[in-house]
Amino acid sequence: MAEEIPEQVRERARELAASLGALSRAYYVDDDPTVSDAEYDRQFRALVDLEADYPGLVTADSPTQRVGAPPAEYFDSVEHAIPMLSLANCFDDDELAEFDRRAREGAGRDRLAYCAEPKFDGTALNLRYEDGVLVRATTRGDGLTGEDITANARTIRNLPLRLPAERPPGVIEIRGEVVLARSRFNELNARLEREGTKPFVNPRNAAAGSLRQLDSRVTATRPLAFMGYGIGQAVGIELPDSLHAQLQLLADWQFSISPYVDRVEGLAGCREYYDAMAARRAELDVEIDGCVFKVDDRASRDELGFVARAPRWAIARKFPAEETTTRLNAVEFQVGRTGALTPVAKLEPVFVGGVTVSNATLHNMDEIARKDVRVGDTVVVRRAGDVIPEVKEVAERGADAQPIALPSACPVCGSAVERVEGEAVARCTGGLVCAAQRRESLKHFASRNALDIEGLGDRQIEAFVAEGLLETPADVFGLHAHRAALVERDGYGEKSVANLLASIESAKDTTLERFIFALGIREVGQTMARDLAQHFATLDALRAEASAYLEREGQALAQHPDNKAARERLMTAEGLQAVPGVGSRVAHCIADFFTESRNLSVIDALIAVGVHWPVVDVDDTPQPLAGTTFVLTGSLETMTREQAGERLEALGARVTGSVSRKTDYVVAGESAGSKRDKAEKLGVAILDEPGLAALLAEHEGQGS
User: Fold this and answer.
1) In the chain, pLDDT over 70 holds for what percent of residues?
2) What does pTM read for this prediction?
3) Is 346 in the active site?
4) Selected catalytic residue, list 119, 318, 675, 678
């Protein structure tokens, strides 16, 4: 039976919660405290005592929930209702001007207004409020799926636990960056050093590390702040068309936003804003690494749409790279998934771009020769934002400088290193014999856009490879035989192992497009994998074409040994080079892969353990949805938008990000918003989720 709480106790708890909320806003948001710390502590303790006596008083938005909770075992994965997209970057005025030109042409405007903001250097967070109360906080993750860190987010003092709105929307997601002010960062590091704990290198790492603590009570001790910059899903509210106005709405709801947010006109306005922020950067207490410019009006944004995982209507203009000099002590060669050897400079540690750098890329042997870099030189090290540090040039030749030589044998497996004439990259020839290639290939195989095996991340794969549990992709599907041993591993348990094995079993049911991408064929990305799957329809047809291609290549060389153009004409008439985007070099990579015996063994082993995909009948009949264009908007319940897009494309449809008169169908899920509105205005057919399901069921063939 629920406890009975006297009304005067409830009223006192409400008074204390309201007072503490106002005091927190004054201190953390307005930077204008109205009472002493002692008075705040007195009120806080009074509320804690009341909630201890009457546990039924505790609510998700109570100020007492900011103190953190006992440690969690792990973070749950959460699919974002609307993806958290990345932004394209530009680094100079010419690139910014090119973005403005593309945006104006795409939107059909002579001039555009932009919402301009500083680009905070922190870690992204998505806050979901239902009926005005914070119910979930998730990290960006891979943009489609993040980690649930709600307990940690509640400890952030300037983050509202309840929206101060008389009629809050049913659902609203607020997006922003968790940051640590420089002044608070210095105070935190001083405290950590006094406690004998290793200090953080920079504010960004401190913010990210604090936010992902399994023990949210630790997060509560870190002086984090949330800076809002946008809105995700919104249900039960009509948002302003202007992004600048949306940010003012966040401020009205008592979220902290940058005081430097502005609405600027055209390219000239963007440049003026950027110059002003660059001049002000050093004075700010919060670190920024550039400026963000977003097309302000909704109609233009809808017209521009998206490309890959970035909007066409926004760009980040990054500040110039920070550079410094240090000594190049040695060069090591790392081996990647395709066997590529990448030279890595081992540097005398130096602080640059906000971090301590001891490694930097040298790209390849051609770059080393072009820059004439040698071990023992003093070199210029460059770092721009999140870009991997690189050796830019030689500042001073070392007295004992030694040339850098490409190893003749792989540093990991000892196999021969081969460098094809005309290519900058040298490669280990060991294939899956090489532990480095095996490890990176397995990471790719299990990644989200490949077979999407949840719970089998980089760290797990590295451990399993080191222990001999994984050697080939087919071994992934044999992990169930090691269930007892997996349960005993640190960080594992019955539930996590059961989830991992279930995800592995589920991954057997895939698509030909995903399977081709998962194989990790050199030069074959997601788009190429999709085009190959659509062109050949079956894996057998693709394998047969690989052999036929090499035969034709031999014939072309015999017929026209001295005429490259004639050889190209013969090779592009059919087969691989008839696939969009497949030139001779890419075709050769694909053909080599599918005629290499050890690769065929991997494919056969995967099929033998049950990996399968729908079979498409190959005949002269056009695909049922060929020539149709779909736009997906809103959230779907029975599948993700990505899955729906894959199924439509498998039937020949084209899936795009923006609605126009050429669009045939708009699939409108929950919170479809402006794209549905535009479809109605243009007379474009609209399908709800049951309508989409019926359409797919009508046209999809079944197979294995």
Assistant:
1) 90
2) 0.53
3) no
4) 119
